[in-house]
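Reviewer 2 asked us to include a model.

Predict the structure of this chain.
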Amino acid sequence: MLSQSLKHTRPLIRLREIMTFKEAHTAHATREDAENQVGEAIDIYREFFHELGIPVIISRRPEWDKFPGAEYTVAFDTVFPDGRVIQIGTVHNLGQNFSRTFDLEFETLEGGKDYVYQTCYGISDRVIASIIAIHGDERGLILPPNVAPIQVVIIPLLFKGKREIVERKAEELYKLLKEIGIRVEIDKRDIRPGRKFHHWELRGVPVRIEVGPKDIEDKVVTLYRRDTGEKYKIKEEDIKGEVLDLLERIGKNMRERAEGRMKGYITLLDYKEDTSIEEIVDRVKEILKKKRGIVLIPFSGKIYNEDFEEKVEASILGVTEYNGGKYIAVGRTY
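Predicted model (structure tokens):
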């Protein structure tokens, strides 16, 4: 599948060829059923992004930016560390527009015929890009535990004359964690521990367990969490419960940290009734230049148009609810 976009490509963000795409299409007998499906799709994606720790703004796209042929489009946007906004999911209510074009009919309960009401919704590689950009740091990936291919890596600290006892303990811990469903690996490579540490930090493995002769003697293990860099020791007998709990704490911390950053990228811009369009435009441009992110402006028909979008030199993302208010969301996008 090839994209129609003529914009410059960016890995995982904007590709000529769509490599990974999840798309759902539904057909319904009534407009109400289609509306309910849209609501269900929004709830699914809201929970999906919550689980990944990706904070989003959900907005109804303006008429000039909705999916061609849709009655309306609802989009999920997040903000990358550079302050730019990226769309990472969409839900479209297609009404009967496509079913009328392609004669997609069904037999009604009354024996007549009608065109189906359709919806579609999807996500793409941009979700992967968002995990990398929002959670990663200068040392590499930081993966949410619930999607990390490897949740825990065990690093045996091998010393001359103690190799066998350390390797045996590493295998024992591996089996214990495997039994409770943890995705765990042992790094058995014959290289320096520091290289192993760097290797797995770069790949974002949430938890590292270090096993050395002294730890075995003291009946403890050393845990390292990738999200904070914290290292601490626990009793060996507590390993199962602590690792499960730690993975939960890491996911929660990553989510809260990302949400805090997102809030820092959102600016509420208020104005008086007699404020001129030019003044609002200047204030929006100044915010996007200095702070970037998303500007939320109390909804008004006088600025919710393509002319305003052109003047602020940014995208009107759509209409959204924020802290109980109705706002126009504006931001510079990829």
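The first strand starts at residue 21 and ends at 28. The domain at 152-249 is CATH 3.40.50.800 (Rossmann fold). We have added this to the supplementary material.
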